[in-house]
Design goal:
The chain is α/β, with parallel strands linked by helices and about 475 residues long. The chain has 18 helices and 13 strands. A six-stranded mixed β-sheet has the order 6-11-10-9-8-7. A hairpin with a 2-residue loop joins strand 8 and strand 9. The longest helix has 19 residues. The protein is globular and about 65 Å long.
């Protein structure tokens, strides 16, 4: 069976735009859902849902909720096939859609028991209920288990979850958010509740009051601070009735593999497997790499020292580039060497060799839609930390549909060639009389987490360099 392909997208786009709804098209990863309302992240995390829901910190602005009967992701997919808008997708995606449809049907059937409706009488007493629960602790675990989807890069995990999310009723207490973004808001709230006897319980109470159904994209644990709080945080969330739908490149048992104090993280894996059905997307095809790349901005080994600066000035146009200061979470600020007309310029070492993280990159993408990054190096043991930061930077830019223009010492694959997993390292040829120690690559970096993450980064860099992705980026800018 072939990858789902959208037909007659022009008329669909015109018809929907006439109704005031913006549609993203082009990227292979989203081909199944190219005529679904395009979602725009509320990066400030405070604006309310356009379809009438109350404001909350995990709010994600949705496209106008058309009066169309929703029947679930698989039903919607089959409807589009019957209408001739889509062709059949591959078996792995259809199998995953069946799991998502099963979850959707269970949620609809148990909507009252799961307390999904934010306008019900039960939810109107949310604050007093939260106070009462502090005085009389009680468990209200959801009768419906969540879903944990994992698989290789580019297999459509995010697209399938978005198809599921877009079919959910607008009045439900739901939230779709990137895992990096989710954890940033958690830490921000923990900071706000310092001094409370159990701030994690308070934060979990606030989150579950706002969004009982959490859809977390790219679940990946690399930070020890995140690892140490996840079990208690989600234990509180699940006790409050939260339902988790997550996507990841890693199976639950492989999360935070080799991380510091992992023994303290293991109870979370058990909790996750208890409260979620685990489903692997078995497709081995990376659909992101099947896009065209004729309009890309990824330049390899250019000898001109000011080549990227010239490209940056072309993007800036008549505007004057000057240093900027970007607001980050909890009062922090990021210094931008040069910025103008929505474009920022950074030497690689200024953005990835300094102690920066996802919060800084989210702040950057909130203010600038294009990043010019100069001289991305080949990664290895000597700059392993910079590699982690670059992976995070690409994740955040991809999530925000930002445009990357860069110069690099090699192709995306070459950048990470010296980053390997333990199994990759063990499979290499053993040392023999003809292969002595002097032939070893001393810059080889054996790191399981980074070794898995690199595949996602290579895939995303490839897609971000494609004409389809750049078309989506241009549509996003045009719609602002």
């Amino acid at each position: 069976m072939r990858r789902a392909l959208v037909k007659s997208i022009g008329p669909i786009r015109s018809a929907i735009r006439h109704r005031g709804v913006k549609v993203s098209t082009g990227v292979a990863k989203r081909l199944l859902v190219s005529n679904i309302n395009d979602r725009i992240y509320d990066r400030s995390l405070y604006n309310g849902c356009k379809c009438g829901g109350p404001s909350n910190m995990f709010s994600r602005t949705l496209s106008s909720d058309a009066e169309v009967k929703r029947a679930g992701p698989l039903v919607e997919y089959e409807r589009r096939i019957a209408a001739g808008d889509l062709e059949d997708g591959d078996n792995s995606q259809i199998g995953t859609l069946k799991e998502l449809q099963r979850l959707y049907d269970e949620l609809v059937k148990s909507a009252d028991a799961c307390r999904l409706d934010r306008y019900s009488d039960y939810e109107k007493a949310g604050r007093s209920r939260w106070l009462w629960s502090r005085l009389m602790p009680q468990s209200s675990v959801s009768p419906v288990k969540g879903l944990y989807l994992y698989g290789g890069v580019g297999t459509g995990k995010t697209m399938l979850m978005d198809l599921f999310y877009d079919q959910l009723p607008c009045n439900w207490r739901k939230k779709r958010i990137h895992f990096h973004d989710f954890m940033l808001t958690v830490h921000s709230r923990l900071q706000k509740h310092r001094g409370v006897s159990d701030p994690l319980e308070v934060v979990a109470g606030e989150i579950s009051d706002e969004s009982i159904l959490l859809c977390l994209d790219e679940f990946m644990v690399t930070d020890v601070a995140d690892a140490l709080i996840l079990n208690r945080l989600f234990s509180h969330l699940f006790t409050n009735g939260a339902i988790l739908v997550a996507t990841s490149n890693r199976a639950p048992d492989n999360l935070y593999e080799g991380g510091l104090q992992r023994d303290l993280f293991l109870p979370f894996i058990a909790t996750l497997k208890e409260r979620c059905v685990v489903h692997e997307i078995g497709s081995s095809i990376d659909y992101r790499t099947r896009t065209s790349a004729e309009e890309g901005f990824y330049f390899v080994k250019n000898d001109s020292a000011d080549f990227l600066m010239q490209k940056f000035k072309e993007l800036v146009g008549e505007h004057t580039a000057q240093p900027h200061e970007v607001e980050v979470v909890m009062g922090r600020k990021l210094q931008v060497p040069l910025g103008a007309n929505g474009c920022a310029y950074f030497p690689f070492e200024e953005l990835c060799d300094k102690p920066l993280g996802a919060a800084d990159y989210f702040g950057l993408c909130k203010k600038f839609h294009t990043l010019a990054l100069d001289n991305v190096p080949i990664f290895g043991l000597h700059n392993r930390t910079a590699a982690y930061r670059f992976v995070t930077l690409v994740d955040v830019m991809y999530e925000n549909k930002a445009r990357l223009i860069c110069t690099a010492e090699g192709t995306p694959f070459q950048l990470f060639e010296r980053i390997v997993t333990v199994s990759d390292a063990q499979s290499r040829a053993p040392r023999t009389s003809s292969r002595s120690r002097k032939n070893d690559d001393y810059d080889l970096c054996v790191d399981n987490e980074l070794g898995f993450a690199k595949d996602r980064t290579i895939s995303r860099l490839t897609e971000m360099n494609s004409s389809e992705y750049l078309e989506q980026h241009a549509e996003m800018i045009e719609g602002k």
